[in-house]
Design goal:
The complex is a heterodimer of chains A (about 150) and B (about 140).
Chain A: H1 7-42, H2 52-55, E1 57-63, E2 66-72, H3 77-91, E3 98-104, H4 109-114, H5 122-146
Antiparallel strand pairs in A: 1-2, 1-3
Helix pairs in contact in A: 1-5
Chain B: E1 2-3, H1 4-16, E2 27-29, E3 41-47, E4 53-54, E5 56-66, E6 68-70, E7 73-75, H2 78-96, E8 101-103, E9 109-114, E10 122-133
Classes of the chains: A alpha+beta (about 150), B alpha+beta (about 140).
Chain lengths: ~150, ~140
């Protein structure tokens, strides 16, 4: 049983708690972005002839419009730089709270999926929609245990 | 739970009863006729999980339209593209109220894009929307 004697102790305790919760949230989001990035590469419906498309796949966790972590963007130089450039061009749109982004940066990624029906990111987007609420629920349970 | 073909048939029927059917092309599931120059409508899906019966998927409805030629240079007919986008937006409103499906309004996107084949002088307007099967 935690006993807090005065206002200062309460404030300090709450501050420490909020840091712990934030660390846990970031940990979960970073792990999830890494999982999504792997999923996107593994469920690719196309033959990546140059390696650029898969190299341009990556994600980021943002806090209040600032990137905390990048995942992916590995391999062919052109893909890596195009992917990073693309994700950075999106960052300014998400100024509040936590955001996770996942992109395939090559210009042909969109017509490949839309015109030729080859999966690029759609299956991963659907996975994200299914699993993110479960992850948040899991985090909430852990927070409740700590309280 | 429905199979991919059952879902495509449901969407096909909805489009067949919409103003999209009045365009000069056909309505197709997955692929249209090779080298078509018509205003075809093509319906396709990408499912969330590879399984016989689908729970969730992304729907893609494309309407093709011809480019404008000027001095052997082809460019998008923006006005026509806008009209096709409006048709697709109206279709999405119908889909949002379709029994057995839960279409997600926040995933709705419509825009135009160039056909990824230089031999075909067309663009397409696309409607993308995710959904879950509710029956």
């Amino acid at each position: 049983m935690l006993k807090l004697k005065n206002q200062k102790q309460i404030t300090t305790h709450l501050f420490k708690q909020s840091i712990l919760i934030e660390k846990a949230l970031i940990f979960y989001l970073e792990a999830f972005v890494a999982e999504l990035e792997n999923h996107a590469k593994e469920s690719a419906g196309y033959q990546d002839q140059t390696g650029n498309l898969k190299s341009s796949i990556g994600g980021a966790v943002l806090k209040d419009g600032k990137p905390i972590t990048y995942k992916g963007f590995e391999g062919k130089t052109e893909g890596v730089s195009t992917g990073k450039e693309f994700i950075n061009s999106l960052v300014s749109k998400y100024q509040k709270g936590y955001t996770i982004l996942l992109v395939a940066g090559m210009e042909y990624a969109s017509p490949l999926e839309n015109y030729l029906d080859f999966n690029v990111l759609k299956k991963t987007e659907l996975k994200m929609q299914r699993e993110l609420p479960e992850i948040m629920q899991k985090l909430k349970k852990q927070i409740d245990l700590v309280r | 739970m429905k199979t991919q073909n059952e879902i495509l048939t449901d969407i096909f029927t909805i489009i067949k009863n919409s103003p999209i059917d009045d365009l000069n092309g056909g309505i197709y599931k997955k692929t249209r006729k090779t080298a078509s120059k018509l205003e075809d409508c093509v319906i396709s899906l990408i499912s969330g999980v590879n399984a016989k019966f689908l729970q969730d998927a992304g729907l893609y409805v494309k309407i093709f339209f011809n480019d404008i030629e000027s001095g052997n240079t082809y460019s998008e007919d923006a006005l026509n593209g806008q009209a096709k986008e409006a048709l697709l937006f109206n279709l999405s409103e119908t889909l949002l109220n379709t029994n057995g499906y839960s279409f997600e309004i926040q995933s709705r996107e419509t825009y135009t894009e160039k056909v990824l084949d230089d031999q075909i002088k067309q663009h397409y307007a696309i409607l993308k929307m995710n959904f879950k099967i509710t029956i």
